[in-house]
Every structure is written in structure tokens, then in C-alpha cells.
Amino acid sequence: MPSSEPLHPEPFVELRDVTFGYGERVILRDFSLTVPRGKVTAIMGASGGGKTTVLRLIGGQQRAQKGQVLVDGRDIGPMDMAQLYAARRRMGMLFQFGALFTDMSVFDNVAFPLREHTSLGKALIRDIVLMKLHAVGLRGARDLMPSQISGGMARRVALARAIALDPELIMYDEPFAGLDPISLGTAAQLIRQLSDAMGVTTILVSHNLQETFALADHVVILGAGNVAVQGTPGEVRTSDDPLVRQFVHALPTGPVPFHHPGPTVEQDFGPVGGRR
Questions:
Q1: What's CA 162's distance to the chain center, in Å?
Q2: Which residues share a beta bridge with 35?
Q3: What's the pLDDT tens digit per position in 124-168?
Q4: Residue 44 lies in a domain
Q5: Is residue 160 situated within a structural domain?
Q6: Which of 174, 190, 196, 244 is most buried, most CB within 10 Å of its CB?
Q7: Is the pTM above the cut of 0.70?
Q8: Residue 18 forms part of a structural domain
């Protein structure tokens, strides 16, 4: 269940007047967003609205063309690679579908960030890995390969890897995609429990309304390259904004069109009833 405590006044992540695009296609324009420290923030909206782009900007995989991306008060944009790697060690990332190393065992997948970013001894790494796997219910699967486990289990292994370095920020990109109802419920419960137990700041990108609204403290709906509405799940659910209503209530018509912009039907096929 979402925390009943008030949102922390100081954000852990803040995007200020960010503009970013791919070539001539602008994804975010003068975009501003605050992520409360120690809370679960869900970023939602129609496909192509920039949700995953926001995660990539925070992680430094992309750099804003304008504006600032602040993580705990430090701007990610001007960082050199050494500074960026140091900032990333404070972050955990759960990629869509897990993105496990297929040639590594479950144990070695979780051990990977510890081996890469610390000088801890073999025995201590073993204990940490087993503790993280225990936290996601998979300590007994340590010796299995990714090909030997289900999709839901793979997502939990990826979560254990994401928390291996005890990050202050965890980002989840569509953690519920492709999961059966049991695995989905388990994943949602784990995200909430880990957030509460570790006190981390959590950013969750998802299209799953029911589970996301049930676990989030703060919900942000994106639209047209900016924030359409944000607030508690209850506030967002009762919003009068047309785009938010269309998204939350799964309406087929509204500000988000079904057809991608392009030539008119008449331009492609000629007048109705006429000859080409």
C-alpha cells in the first residue's frame, strides 16, 4: 500500500525546463518534473509520450538539449564519464523484460555489479548476492541459468541485481509487462516492500493502471511532451483533464488519436467513390 506520510518537500530527482528530441522529433519540450525523496513515483501516459526517455535522461544515457536533470541536487548533463559512473552507482535500473546476461547464472548476474564496482572479497560478495536473492524469493535458484527460469522469475533476478549496490534511487521500466497475474502481483508487492524497507526513491514507468495506482505514492501522467497532471493516485483518477480521463478510463477517443499523423485518406485514396 502507498505510504500515508506526506511527500518529502525536497525532491531527490528534478527535471527543470528540459527539452529533448531525436533529430527533428521533439519528445519533451520545456519539461519539468519533481520526484519526492523516499517515495514511489509512477510515470504514466500514452505510448511515445517520453516516459522511458525521462529514465534515460536521469541515468545519463541521453543528455538534455536544454534544461537541467538534477539527481540529489547534482546536474547529470555536464558530468564527465567518471562523474556519471559515480552517480550511476547510486542508482538501480530494472530494464523491461529484465535484460539478464544469458551466459551467466542467476548468481553471477546479481554478483556482476558488485564485482564491477566494488573491491569486496569473494566471500562477502557471495553473502550479499544470497541476501538479495533471498529478498526476492530466489535464493534457491542461484545456480540456474536465465534459460531455465520463467519470465517472472527473471524479472525478480533483475530486481535483485538492481538492488545489489543498495542504491538510493531505483528506476523500473515497465516491470509488469508480459507477466501473468500471480507474477505481476508478486512484482508489485516486491517493489513496494523494497521501497519501504530500504527507504529508496522509486520511479516506475508502467501502463498497468490497477497495480501501479495501488502501490504508488505519487502519479505523473505525461501528455504532449509535458506533464498533464500529477498528484496522489486518487487525485489523478478524478482529474477532469481530457487526456488524463482518456488514459485512466481507457477511452478509445480523446486527445490521443488512434491514427499516427500522415496524409489524409483522400490524399492516399482519392475522393470517396471516385477513381484513382
A1: 12
A2: 13
A3: 999 999 999 998 888 999 999 999 988 888 888 988 898 888 899
A4: yes
A5: yes
A6: 244
A7: yes
A8: yes
